[in-house]
Amino acid sequence: MARECYVCKKRGQSGHNISHAHNVTKRRFNPNLQRLRIIEAGTRMRVRVCTRCIRSGFIQKSA
C-alpha cells in the first residue's frame, strides 16, 4: 500500500533542511497518516487516511 491518503491522495513532499550556517540537505515532509477501518459501500476496509480527512469527516469509521 502506498504511503498516501486514501481520500485526498496526499503524499510526501521533498524539501531541504537548512542549518544556521546555511548547509542544505534533503528531507521529506510526510503527511500524518493513520490506519483505520472505514465503511465504504457497505464493506469494511482498513486504509490509511490523513488526519485532516478524519477531522473533516470525509470518512465513516467502522465500530
Plain-language structure description:
The chain is mainly β and 63 residues long. It has a single domain, classed as Ribosomal Protein L24e, Chain: T, CATH 2.30.170. 10% of the residues lie in helices and 44% in strands. It is built from 1 helix and 4 strands. The strands form 2 sheets. A two-stranded antiparallel sheet has the order 1-2. A hairpin with a 2-residue loop joins strand 3 (33-40) and strand 4.
> Which residues form runs of ≥5 with pLDDT under 50?
none
What Rg is obtained from the alpha carbons, in whole angstroms?
Answer: 16 Å
CATH domain fold name: Ribosomal Protein L24e, Chain: T
Describe the largest sheet: 2 strands, antiparallel
pLDDT averaged residue by residue: 94
Strand content: 35-45%
CATH architectural designation = Roll
How many strands appear in the DSSP assignment?
A: 4
Helix content: under 10%
CATH level-4 homologous superfamily: Ribosomal protein L28/L24
| SS-derived structural category | mainly beta
Q: How many helices in DSSP terms?
A: 1
Cα distance, first to last residue?
23 Å
Shape: elongated
Q: What count of structural domains?
A: 1
Adjacency order of strands in the biggest sheet? 1-2
The level 1 CATH classification is: Mainly Beta
